[in-house]
Design a protein that fits this description.
Elements: H1 2-28, H2 30-60, H3 65-83, H4 86-89, H5 92-116, H6 122-141, H7 147-176, E1 179-180, E2 183-184
Antiparallel strand pairs: 1-2
Helix pairs in contact: 1-2, 1-7, 2-3, 5-6, 5-7, 6-7
Amino acid sequence: MKEKIKEFRLNITIPAIFTVAVGILLLVFPVESIATISKVIAAIIILSGIFIVISQIFERGLNNGLGIAVGAIVAVIGIWLFNDSGKIISIIPIAIGVILVIHGVQDLGMAIEAAKAKATGFWVSFILAAINIIFGIICIGAAFQVVSLATQLIGIMLIWDGITDFGIVHSVRKATGSVVDGTITKEEDI
């Protein structure tokens, strides 16, 4: 159980660091960040199309015209999106909102663990998780509003998400770290 919690903490702490960093970039450089993210997404789509074409050729040779055509179409769509990244920009807030909701649900799971471990003030973790989920829903709902403002709000939300992940992980670690062989011990008793 203790190893599972340590692994779970690590799986939350690393993304928390990443979300704070991305949140700061989005807050400070909203237009540039969104443009860069859009170009990266388009480049991934282009590479996916190229990969589909190459894998179809290696798997079946030139006999699979449909598979090669699908890969080529995906690559062309990626090139089109790369040249007109505004099409992707409207999707980004939705994707980030989904990430915030997922992190909020993960935080909710950690809050439940804190409650099971009878951590003091575990209810705060529930509130923080709920706020993360609400931020995600707001992000999804405001996806088609003004992108620059939405990007700055997303940056603030990501910073909040990362910071609250750190706090919740610390709270659970503190509560579960003091459990030894099923009995609760205090540091001064050791």
